[in-house]
Amino acid sequence: MIDVNDLTKIPTDCSLTEFVGTTVLDTIGLVIPGIDSSLLGQMNLKKPYKSLGLISSRTGAAGQINAVDEAVKSTNTEVVSIELPRDTKGWGGHGCFIILGGENVSDVRRTVEISLEYIEKYAGELYISQAGHLEFTYSACADLALNIAFDAPVGRPFGFFCGSPAAIGLVMADLAVKASPVEIIRYMTPDKGTSHSNEVIVAVTGDASAVKDAVLTARETGLRLLVSMGSFPETPSKPFL
Q: Rounded to the nearest 10 degrees, what angle do helices 62-73 and 105-122 cross at?
């Protein structure tokens, strides 16, 4: 029994069966081996999954979604839903809440484990300063998670760039798509497709080299603009692009 009068005595190494792990960007991975039937009914999922995997974070979204996209390719699980809560710990953007479904709890747990491993990698392209933030991701072969979240064509290259304040996001997107022959598949603003977050988000597809070049152009533009606001951004991991 936890002593609520002294919460410092709660061990940080959680032993609950549902706990899988944590990683950067205040991300936690959990699994529900057999969800309560009454709760499952309220969730209105597309299938009565026996086991659910959960990825939830306070900061970042594209990196987590890209990580899950990689994870489901090698496991017998499905992406059930993706939500982008208004968060970033009080800053301008989103966190994420991703539900995975499967029949076998070991498959679901393994998907969450793989996702957490990839999140640490993809978090390297999230840049946060006192003035705002930038997020970028790239996949050579998008799968169902990126399709659900951003309408990415399955099997094709995918690029994502996000800037906050929103004006930075729009300028870097404009220069990126001018510089590379890519197709815009999603355009999101504070009033369109986001949880009213202070961002402009653009997702693109096309030839692999063109998509990657567009993301790199957006990154260079965004970093220059964000730094001009007076503070240097930090990233929680190593940049991978």
A: 140
